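Blinded run. Sample ID left blank on purpose so nobody reads anything into the name before looking at the predicted structure. Input follows.
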Amino acid sequence: MKFFQEESGQTILEYALIIAVLVLVVIAAIPSLRGAVTGVFTNVKSGLEDAPVIPAP
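Blinded prediction complete.
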């Protein structure tokens, strides 16, 4: 019964399920991360706008 002794298919299935769960977690986290990333870019933008301009020589 070689069919029941072969475990490579089970391993591939387990890895596929782990990856599927991780993808679902990332998709669920995107809305909350969106606000954080937007805030970082807004802070950078305002910091660059408020930076002093160095005149060219």
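Unblinding after everyone has recorded impressions. The helical segments are 2-5, 8-50.
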